[in-house]
Amino acid sequence: MAFLVVMKRLNVNMGDLPYFDNSDAKPLREIVFHHDREVEKFPRLHSLTRIEDVLEMNLFLEHRFKGIFMPPNFLRQV
Length: 78
Known about the structure:
4 strands; alpha+beta; extended; about 25% helix; single chain
């Protein structure tokens, strides 16, 4: 069984302070940001068989981009 993971480069909004827009009575809520920050060709991983792993790696990539990822303490004590 092959575990296929594909990287796609997409335009992503990495804005600050996301919230749900409740102004319209739509069945699906829309996420909007207080401050928009559009990033072109941001790498996103996609897989139909390894969904949890791909979600974790996408979150890691987003945190690295925003600068909020912190390595473990034993790696910072160099």
